[in-house]
Amino acid sequence: MISSADFFSTYQYEIEHDFEKDGQPPTWAAGGPQAWGSETAKLPFDEEVKSIALTLDGSKLAVCLSKEFRVYDTPTHTLLHTVHCPYPSIVHFSPDGDIIAVQMSLRMDGRMEQIVSLVNLDGSSQTLLLSPEAVEEAARSAATATAAILSQQSGESFSSAIESPQILEDFTKTVLNIVVIQRERLGRVWRGGMPSFGSYPFSNDGTLLFYIKPDRKTVVAVDIQETLRRGYTERFTMVQHEDSVVWAGQSPDGKLLATSAWDKFVRLWDPTDGSLLKVLTGATNQSWAASFSPDSQLIAAGSGDKQVRVWKTATGELVHFLGGFKGWIRRMQFNPEGTHLVAGAAGGTVRVFDVMSGDSVQWWQLALPHRGEGFSEISSVQWQGDRILIRTPDGSTVVYDVQQNRKWELVATKSNGGQHFYGQTVAAGGGKVVYSTDYDQAIRVWDLD
């Protein structure tokens, strides 16, 4: 079986079929593909950027590193906050941008666990669990005490053994696990993960956070203010799915919550108490990403059966089967007017559908080399303003202006050894400002006005 490294060592980005309008291919917005060095700004870091997130208004950018995340003012790129976070994290801003939901991954009890917490950027604490200095001191003290006891019991000296980097690293992990357990008892962190695949985990008014319990089947609405004041506080739970929930979100009008799960169902819930309202059926394989239309009258969801389905939220009626994909569909979004839906899939396919007719009106396809389908999933599609943004498997970004039929290609330089780097692309200002994470430990900013 071909490995990711082998595939991307020879992979060359190429399009088999481009967007078009009235039978005409798009024109280049910048005279051709833009390579590294032509970006508007570059934010370099000393390590790989794990993830990034923007506030809804695009005024702040969160950058997650291995042991902290930083919040920047986007107009000036000024550092506003540094929050110590000892584990790789994923973050989301609340609607007002003042609160950050954090998901961390760590090894506890011999297995990987996810924990969730909240950070109030207006608060005084800029440490999520414990300061790095305190953790290091506790780990070193514990190692020293252990060495002293072992030396006393055995008559041998263990003082040099504790200077081993691996020993100190193991003690540090133990100290952090102790801190997590204590914070969990106080309700400052809790086990579970946030919904993914384009989910926004906050309620529209910013009072609730939606997360998935470790059983992966139960979605909980957490009261944010009570949790910040007194510790973990559940408002209600949503319990009906029979397999892992992967996506969750609230309708734009605030009247519905929706979840999508591997049990092949999309479920609609009452946002006041979590009671089940409707079960949307039709998928014959795992259900993945979903999206509400801007008027909340429709919801679309992609499935492992290579189909997108669209239902009426009021009645649960299935109104469209949307096909033309080579693999599962795990990214989608309606345009701001609600007239079209864009979806990206495994196999390097992006399609735009007319919501009224269900017709595929735009098709974009990566050229796939032999045995390439397994490495060619579209990792992100977004529709901002008149622009569609696509993140390709090699880390490049394509931006297409639907109205003006013009495009940008922000082409990633091939990494040393061809190692695959997923990275992220986020955008603000209707797709006019694009931020991309790249394998060279940098974030590039592209002004596409």
Automatic annotation (TrEMBL):
A Pfam family per the record: WD40
Cited PANTHER family: F-BOX AND WD REPEAT DOMAIN CONTAINING 7, WD40 REPEAT PROTEIN
Lineage summary: Eukaryota, Fungi, Dikarya, Basidiomycota, Agaricomycotina
Name this protein carries in UniProt: WD40 repeat-like protein
Keyword Endoplasmic reticulum (UniProt): no
Keywords: Repeat, WD repeat
Highest taxon of the lineage: Eukaryota
InterPro entries for this protein: WD40/YVTN_repeat-like_dom_sf, WD40_repeat_CS, WD40_rpt
Repeat recorded as keyword: yes
Organism per entry: Neolentinus lepideus HHB14362 ss-1
Extent of the WD repeats: 238-279, 280-321, 322-363, 431-449
